[in-house]
Amino acid sequence: MNFKMIKRNFEKGLWSVAMVKTAVRKGVITKEEYKEITGEVYA
């Protein structure tokens, strides 16, 4: 998994916001990348 794959999957509806948050917690993407993907600030 990487940023591009996660973003594409989120945009296609295959990934939920919770799944993207998990990627941040696991260190796969950054909080800034989370915001770029979801449009929300990571809390």
Description:
By secondary structure, the chain is mainly α. The chain has one domain (3-38). 60% of the residues lie in helices and 0% in strands. It has three helices and no strands. The chain has helices at residues 3-11, 17-25, 31-38. The termini are far apart. The relative contact order is 0.22. The mean pLDDT is 98.
Write the layout of secondary structure elements.
Layout lengths: L2 H9 L5 H9 L5 H8 L5
Q: Structural class of the helix and strand makeup? A: mainly alpha
Mean model confidence by pLDDT:
98
- Overall domain count: 1
* Overall geometry: globular
Q: What share of residues is helical?
A: 55-70%
Calculate the terminal CA-CA distance, rounded to whole Å.
22 Å
Q: Using only CA atoms, what is the Rg?
A: 9 Å
State the order of secondary-structure elements, H for helix, E for strand: HHH
Q: For the report, how would you describe the main beta sheet?
A: none
Identify low-pLDDT runs: none
How many helices? The count is: 3
The proportion of residues in beta strands is: under 5%
| Count of individual beta strands | 0
What attributes characterize this protein structure?
mainly alpha; 3 helices; 43 residues; 60% helix
Please sum up the structure shown.
Helices cover 60% and strands 0% of the residues. The protein is built from three helices and no strands. The model has no long low-confidence stretch (mean pLDDT 98).
